[in-house]
Amino acid sequence: MDPAQPLRDFRPSKKFFIGIDSDGCVFDSMEVKQKECFCPMFIKHFHLQAAGKYARQTWEFVNLYSKTRGCNRFQALSASLNFLRRRPEVIARHVPIFDTAPLDEWLAHESKLSNDALAAAVQAGQAALAPVLAWSQAVNAAIADIVRGVPPFPPVRPCLDLMTPQADTMVISQTPGEALRREWVENGIDSCVKLIAGQEMGCKTEHLKFAAAGKYPRENILMIGDAPGDFKAAQSNKVLFFPVVPGREEQSWQRLREEGLERFFAGRFAGDYEKQLCEEFEASLPATPPWEAPPA
């Protein structure tokens, strides 16, 4: 069965729909996952120990502190390796960088960027992707071992309680589904959403398209997220977006609770209010890394 079929089969039970990202948006888990799980496995599996300082800086920029924050792990891997390939410090140390051409080819043709899809490609003969799969599996094992007991941001639960009487709510994420379910169940908030959609069901744009577009009026669909990919998914489907600003997550959720949801349910969200929110969000994340930025 197509992993995205539950999204296609989803039927509205409320007037409104709200999609919610998870890592870094609902849970304060981005830092621990990226710094303690993803990055150490990145350095280990791609033999970057000789440039460890620069590998860590690059990984954190791509995944936490830039406009690529929250992108799929395989896209982040390609971006990070290609940044490293042209860093003068890495070149000076003669550190070989993994060839991303096979990964980039796979990324260009595969919409469901998951371990299962990658494993199928490796089994089909794309042996050059095997190190990528080994890295991704090691990341999952590290997350299962290390990341536990991370609660939602404090204002999240009151917001969920305000949403659910009026809206069908759904997790829309590029995290593996198993990890998502574990985190939402662990914190007792899985009952607040109709469905948990992870990377196996496609990208976030597809999640929104299959689950909500054409099933609700576009002005009745809201995406909540902390990354430009969430904003892009909302824009691609011509639906509304509420940003959880990195570094100001609790204030963002409080703002949603105090004014954003009321405006959304009353039909007063689109226009100047949403524009102001998105401009603040856009300004919060740079596109150019500090080591490539021109001198001030």
Kindly, what is the distance between the CA atoms of the first and last residues, rounded to a whole number of angstroms? 54 Å
CATH class of the largest domain: Alpha Beta
Stated plainly, the CATH topology of the largest domain is called Rossmann fold
Structural class: alpha/beta
Radius of gyration: 19 Å
Beta fraction? 5-15%
Shape: globular
Per DSSP, the total helix count is 14
Percent in helix: 40-55%
Secondary-structure arrangement, i.e. CATH architecture of the largest domain: 3-Layer(aba) Sandwich
Q: How many domain units?
A: 2
- In spatial order, strands of the major sheet run 3-2-1-4-5
Low-confidence stretches: none
Order of helices and strands: HEHHHHHHHHEHEHEHEHH
**Mean pLDDT, all residues:** 95
Q: What do we call the CATH homologous superfamily of the largest domain?
A: HAD superfamily/HAD-like
Let me know the number of strands: 5
